[in-house]
Structure formats: C-alpha cells, structure tokens
Amino acid sequence: MQPKTSLSSDNKSSYIWAIITGLLSSSCCIIQLILNLFSIGCAGFSVLTPYRPFFLSFTAILIIYTITKYGFNSKRTLITLLISILLTASPELVSLHNQGKIISSTNSKQIFVREIETFVVQINGISCEGCANRIKAQIDSKPFVINSKVYFKNQSAIVSVKLGTYKSNDIETWVKMVDFKYGAKVIQQYIETIEEE
Ligand SMILES: *[C@@H]1O[C@H](CO)[C@@H](O)[C@H](O)[C@H]1NC(C)=O
Fold this sequence. Notes:
The chain is of the alpha+beta class. The chain starts with a helix and ends with a strand. The chain has helices at 3-25, 29-37, 52-70, 75-88, 90-98, 129-140, 168-178, and strands at residues 115-124, 145-151, 156-162, 183-193. The protein is elongated and about 60 Å long. Residues 120, 122, 151, 154, 156 line the site of 2-acetamido-2-deoxy-beta-D-glucopyranose. Residues 120-162 form the HMA domain. InterPro entries: Heavy-metal-associated_CS, HMA_dom, HMA_dom_sf. This is 15065_t:CDS:1.
C-alpha cells in the first residue's frame, strides 16, 4: 500500500479537473486573453459557447465531489473552488472590463479635454469576450482615445475621443487592423461638452 502517492496524484487530479472544466465552462476565455498577449488572432473558441451549460454542470459536479470528499474547510477544496470559479466567471469579468466597469490602467489616461466626440461603431464578427478585449486594447492604445467600451453581446463599440483628432474611418481602420474579418461601421456620432469643475 502506498497511500501517500495515491493521495497526492488524486489531489493534483482534482486541480487539473478544476482547470479543465473551468476553461471549458468559460469557452477558453483565459486562453484567448493569453493568445491576445502574443497578438495571435481570435482562435474561435466560441464554438464551445453553446455547450456552456453542459460544462457548467460538470464544474458544479466537480465542486460538490471535492466538498464531499475533502470537506469544506480543506485547502484542497478552497483552491479547487477558487480555480473553478475564477475560470468559469472569466468571460463575465472580461465583459465588465470591456464595458469599462472595471478600471484599468489603459482607461485612466489623463487627457485634458473639454469637448469629446463619441462614435458608436457596429462591429460584425466578434466571437467572444476575449476577442472583444483585443479590439478594446487596440482602440485604447491610440493617444487621443479617452475611453472605449466594446460589447460582445450586441457586437458594437462606443469610442470617445478628443474632439477633432480622429474621423469615423480611422476607427473603422483600427478595428480592421486587429483582424480583417471584422466589419466595422460607425453608425452614430455626437459631440459632448464637459463642464469644468
Ligand atoms: C449595445 O449595448 C450597450 C449596453 O447594453 C448600449 O449602450 C449600446 O448602445 C448598444 N449598441 C448598439 C449599437 O445598440
């Protein structure tokens, strides 16, 4: 009998399953974010999205199994739970970031402006939150962009820039530069004046 080795391989396997089911439940959102770092295009993990409820049940089963096996207060259970929840919720977290609801260093740019021009852009072909995130990063990298929000759900973006710096077709071009498969069209455009405090 070798209880130690069998226990440790069992432990590892519960983490591995947490990672696998978590990644699948998230339609590989985290993998897409990593691909973005290396400027690799959208990998089309969105084929997994329709199966999300199915993978979510697997994740739930794994969590229940881990809790019954190791108890609620064990380190094993906590780590498995943490991995599963973070991975599974990653598309929602990325979505909040894409909508500018989680503050990031890129959208805390200090540009002093009194007039902002806002463009509403219809973007066809965004296949997941990870891909939307790549578009947002590209838009935010432009010096006179004040902020941007990219919506995977309705395939659009709202981009605010310093007045007079960019035109509709600049923004359409940036999106195309991320990937030529995207169709980008500015459908609305307006100017706002900000009151000085
Ligand atoms: C997409 O949804 C967001 C928030 O739900 C909204 O503000 C935006 O205007 C929508 N875009 C279009 C093109 O309707």
